[in-house]
Amino acid sequence: MPLRDILPFLIPLAVAEFILLAISLRHILTHKSYKRGTRGLWIAVVIIGMQFIGPILYFLLGKED
Q1: At 12, is the pLDDT very low, low, confident or very high (cuts 50, 70, 90)?
Q2: Number of structural domains, the chain?
Q3: Which domain, by its residues, includes 64?
Q4: Measuring CA to CA, which residue among 31, 24, 29, 30 is closest to residue 59?
Q5: How far is CA 5 from the centre of its chain?
Q6: Is 38 part of a structural domain of the chain?
């Protein structure tokens, strides 16, 4: 399958990924307490975590309201 055929799907997916990454990093850096783990752990999970999985894990497991 040529790249040109899947590009309309990949561009919105990449934009959503970067937005989710930015929102989760902003939240991690502006808050001091988390349900599980520390700030360093969640930054590593979000940045190193596989694309959508790292930020989603943070919002499900680490974010404290």
Answers
A1: very high
A2: 1
A3: 33-65
A4: 24
A5: 26
A6: yes
